[in-house]
């Protein structure tokens, strides 16, 4: 089915005497189901696209099915949605399992950091060697990025550190109680911790990996089945255009009122200080890069993970990306 926009308007004028008003037929928008994260920046940009009708201008109407990242990836695999928000590493695993995924547009950078108490003596990741650190589960993108950074610093995330696996809230509690020296944390939680005056960022994943590979690591992209990409190029273009426009709105600060209204819902930010800081980070953390040079940077990050046996080898990683 080809994408049809609102610009296709047919006007029929009646030839009967006294008929002066035209009859206008408006072509319908193409409905598109997308699985996206129910909270955080993936949910935020999806909601922004809907609120500003950035999909409608390209002839599509997106219905966002809010769920966690694992469910979102499975949704496109099972045919419940046309597209899903997912990490590039998830796409690699899906390809290996027989689901041929293609990534069509970026969403957000990782937003992860190693966070320590403000008065901690640690100055670098190497200072944490041999110590307990709070980390996410081995199957997550957050863990994957931490392992790649350690490798690039001649360290082994599994052998040189005592990883304590936990979820977001538990990680923060572990650091607060002093049961670990550092935690792997992402936005907006990092901003809230720093604003409390009790914690600081030891190492920013995005800054670190950009220095090494030429671009920050993508936490989230929009993935579609290869078959859909090949059969519906107009749909791919429309979806990408909607997301590109949304990122431009965010980067230009034209979403201020929307962010203020949604800060609590998507980021659990409530005080004026939290909202102001969260808005700044939100603007910085949305990804606007795409193209060959960018693909090569992401491929190098993925290849590093493959060498650590955190990801399967799927051959040519260039096949993942749709220009």
Give a written overview of the molecule.
The chain folds into two domains: 9-110 and 218-320, D-Maltodextrin-Binding Protein, domain 2; 112-213, 3-Layer(aba) Sandwich (D-Maltodextrin-Binding Protein, domain 2). The chain contains twelve helices and twelve strands. The protein has helices at residues 40-51, 69-77, 88-96, 141-152, 168-176, 189-195, 205-213, 226-231, 233-251, 256-267, 272-285, 292-307, and strands at 9-12, 23-26, 30-37, 60-67, 83-86, 101-109, 112-117, 132-135, 162-165, 182-186, 199-204, 218-225. A five-stranded mixed beta sheet has the order 4-3-5-12-6, with helices on both faces. Strands 9-8-10-7-11 form a five-stranded mixed beta sheet, with helices on both faces. The chain has a two-stranded antiparallel ribbon with strand order 1-2. The longest helix has 19 residues, at 233-251. The two termini are 21 Å apart. The model is unreliable at 1-25 (pLDDT under 50).
């Amino acid at each position: 089915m080809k994408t049809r926009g609102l610009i296709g308007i047919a006007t029929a004028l009646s030839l009967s005497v006294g008929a002066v008003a035209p009859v206008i037929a408006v072509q319908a928008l193409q409905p598109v189901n997308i699985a996206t994260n129910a909270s955080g920046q993936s949910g935020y940009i999806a909601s922004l696209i809907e609120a500003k009708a950035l999909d409608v201008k390209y002839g599509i109407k997106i219905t966002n099915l809010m769920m966690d990242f694992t469910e979102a990836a499975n949704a496109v695999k099972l045919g419940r949605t046309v597209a899903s928000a997912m990490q590039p590493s998830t796409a690699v695993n899906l390809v290996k399992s027989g689901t041929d995924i293609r990534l069509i547009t970026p969403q957000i950078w990782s937003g992860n950091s190693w966070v320590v108490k403000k008065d901690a003596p640690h100055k670098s990741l190497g200072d944490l060697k041999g110590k307990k650190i709070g980390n996410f589960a081995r199957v997550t993108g957050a863990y994957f990025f931490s392992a790649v950074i350690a490798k690039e610093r001649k360290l082994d995330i599994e052998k040189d550190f005592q990883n304590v696996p936990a979820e977001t809230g538990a990680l923060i509690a572990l650091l607060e109680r002093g049961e670990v020296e550092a935690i792997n944390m992402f936005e907006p939680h990092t901003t809230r911790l720093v604003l409390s005056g009790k914690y600081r960022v030891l190492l920013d994943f995005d800054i670190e990996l950009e220095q090494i590979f030429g671009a920050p690591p993508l936490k989230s992209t929009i993935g579609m089945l290869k078959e859909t990409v090949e059969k519906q190029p107009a749909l791919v273009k429309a979806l990408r255009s909607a997301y590109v426009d949304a990122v431009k709105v965010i980067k230009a600060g034209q979403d201020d009122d929307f962010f203020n209204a949604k800060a609590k819902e998507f980021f659990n930010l409530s005080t004026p200080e939290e909202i102001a800081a969260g808005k700044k980070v939100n603007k910085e953390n949305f990804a606007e890069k795409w193209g060959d040079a960018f693909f090569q940077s992401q491929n190098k990050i993925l290849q590093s993970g493959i060498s650590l046996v955190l990801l399967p080898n799927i051959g040519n990683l260039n096949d993942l990306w749709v220009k």
